[in-house]
Amino acid sequence: MNTAVTAFVQPLATAAAWPDDRPQVRPAAVASIAGQGLSVIRTAAQFEALAPEWLALETEADGAQFFQSAGWARAIFAFEAARDTGRFDPIIVALRQNGRLRAVLPLERLGGALRILVPLGDGFAQFTDLLCAPDLDTKAAVDAMLAAAIKAAPCDLVSLHKVRSDGHLVAGLSGAVQTGEALGAPFERLTDWADFEGYFASIRPKTRKNMRSGRNRLEREGPLEHRIALGDAAIGAVVARIVAGRANRLKEQGLTSRAFADRDFAGFCAGLAGAAGIEVMALSLCRDGEPLSEQWGFVHGGRYYIFMTSRDFGSSEESPGKLQMKDVMQASFARGIRTVDFMTPIMPYKQTWCRQLAQVRDYAIPVTPKGWLRINLWDRRARPRLKRVVNGLPKPLRTALLRLVGKTV
């Protein structure tokens, strides 16, 4: 057998049997939390009944919580109702203490040969966490809430993507299996600085000089203007351009992502401008009125989450995306934003603007032998190797392969 093929296949054939000490959630072993009450939300009507308390909890919670917010959950409910596949199965666990809502864990169940509990809106969300009061015993809460979710919606495994190291959920996952590679999510706390001028002065002088020179060269080709879209129609237009630009760029590079592998992702994004409980910020660096670099994201709880960016790769030798970040950071200061999240992965231009970094990892918890096999054969062994093989292929071959299978690995 070919050596490379052997190296790929052999670890799959030597996976251990279903172990007695496997990390898992045991529904019978629910952690004891004084005065607790657990409920599981399964319908849009039940969600709307909970939403006022959920929103109140958001004002107490800290950290990067947008993708666990009521606004995000409502957007997912609306999106799934509109496409009406019949497969949407929400499992939102609410924990109360002494009658007061203290934590929310938004999940959904994927069906098929394997039943998998994943974060709500998993294919589109960028982070997974537990929305909770800051003083909650998060380890006990996570144990109890996952057990309640599994009891209400039996599954083979729990798969939690992009769990932040600085969040609350990770405290309850000490027995979970880490899958995939660790990624970095850069962010910048603007509250560390009195104003934008003080922040910008902290960037290396040589970097600031290079950015001034790059901007001057761009301006010689035409006047530059930084625009912040106002109104749902203008925001929606920027969002549509960026989504189309990113999709085309991925196609050119022979790449894809879990979000873009979903044919309805563009429609989901289009529905976010003006969606109830969602605040979208969209910004464009233009030359002669034409966008050179654009980005959009969400403003929630004093944080700006840069969800997607796009740039014109053919119009200039400069790096308009990096240059635009000066305008974005200045606009964030002016808007009173306290933290800017650059999302995964780490990239050089992000490190120019960020000093803080959260580690992001995927975790899995087997519930049945089938789930254990999926985690150990696919998530931990086959998928990482297959991903390396595919990403190492020449671009034309990689593009043809992804078109053939129609999905991402």
Question: What attributes characterize this protein structure?
Answer:
alpha+beta, 13-stranded mixed sheet, disordered N terminus
Protein described:
By secondary structure, the chain is α+β, with helices and mostly antiparallel strands. Helix content is 40%, strand content 24%. It has twelve helices and 13 strands. Strands 1, 2, 3, 4, 5, 6, 7, 8, 9, 10, 11, 12 and 13 form a 13-stranded mixed sheet that branches. The radius of gyration is 22 Å and the shape is globular.
**Major β-sheet annotation:** 13 strands, mixed
Alpha-carbon distance between the termini?
A: 24 Å
Order of helices and strands: HEHHEEEEHEEHHEHHEEEHEHEHH
Count of DSSP strands: 13
Total of DSSP H or I helical runs spanning 4+ residues = 12
User: What's the helical proportion of residues?
Assistant: 25-40%
What is the mean pLDDT? 88
Oligomer: single chain
Estimate the strand proportion.
15-25%
What structural category arises from helix and sheet content?
A: alpha+beta
| Rg measurement, Å | 22 Å
Basic shape: globular
Poorly predicted ranges (pLDDT <50, ≥5 residues)? 1-18, 20-32
Question: In brief, what are we looking at here?
Answer:
The chain is 40% helix and 24% strand. The protein is α+β, with helices and mostly antiparallel strands and 409 residues long.
Q: What is the topology?
A:
Layout: H1 3-13, E1 36-41, H2 44-60, H3 70-83, E2 90-97, E3 100-110, E4 116-119, E5 131-132, H4 138-152, E6 157-164, E7 177-189, H5 196-201, H6 205-220, E8 224-228, H7 232-253, H8 265-270, E9 280-287, E10 290-300, E11 303-311, H9 320-335, E12 339-341, H10 348-353, E13 356-366, H11 369-391, H12 395-405
Parallel strand pairs: 4-6, 11-12
Antiparallel strand pairs: 1-2, 2-3, 3-4, 3-5, 6-13, 7-12, 7-13, 8-9, 9-10, 10-11
Helix pairs in contact: 1-11
